[in-house]
Amino acid sequence: MKRRTVTAGNLEEILQVTAPAQATEQAAAQPAAAPPPREDHGLRTEFEFELPRGYVDEAGTVHRHGAMRLATARDELRPQIDLRVKENPAYLSVVLLSQVITRIGTITDVHAGIVERMYATDVAFLQDFYRRVNSEGHTRAAVTCPHCEGGFEVDLSGGRLGES
After folding, report:
1. Cβ-based burial of 63 (10 A; exposed 0-12, middle 13-18, buried ≥19)
2. What is the torsion angle, in degrees rounded to the nearest 10, for the CA atoms of residue 17, residue 20, residue 21 and residue 23?
């Protein structure tokens, strides 16, 4: 940086020369404009579900509705180094589910302890749900009516049987 000696005579000249530089510095100091909105490419990354029984918290509140996001490679690799999984390989699904479930009812901090306290039927439902959304990319299942032998699809993500 150059130093200049300023006298009253050349002050106006210096202000005019440095004015564009100051404007550029002020513009750089201002926060950037908000980034343009992301384009929706049709990729669904979070799926809603309804547990068959529901998670019962410490206060006795039953939480049935929740959401699960798509798993990343890191989600699938991280449980492999978890000591609980090394000691008991069956614990892998508990750790994996706790990473991809984003909420259950009003609970947004889903961890392995919550999955551990779920009913076995709910854990089995979530394991199947995980497989469907991460392998097949949807939550529909083909079923056959036991009475008429007619085939149709059901959405496993929510709603009680018989409800639309």
Report:
1. middle
2. 140
Residue pointed to by tokens 């978890």? 82
* pTM to 2 decimal places: 0.60
What's the CA gap between 128 and 133, in Å, rounded?
9
Reference 99, options 117, 86, 87, 114; nearest CA is: 114
Quick one: CA torsion of 122, 145, 141, 105, rounded to 10 degrees? -30
pLDDT tens for each residue of 105-145: 999 999 999 999 999 999 999 999 999 999 876 666 677 78
CB atoms within 10 A of CB 49: 22
Q: Report the candidate in 136, 139, 160, 142 with the shortest Cα–Cα distance to residue 50.
A: 160
| 25-82 pLDDT tens trace | 554 555 555 555 555 566 788 999 999 999 999 999 999 999 999 999 999 999 989 9
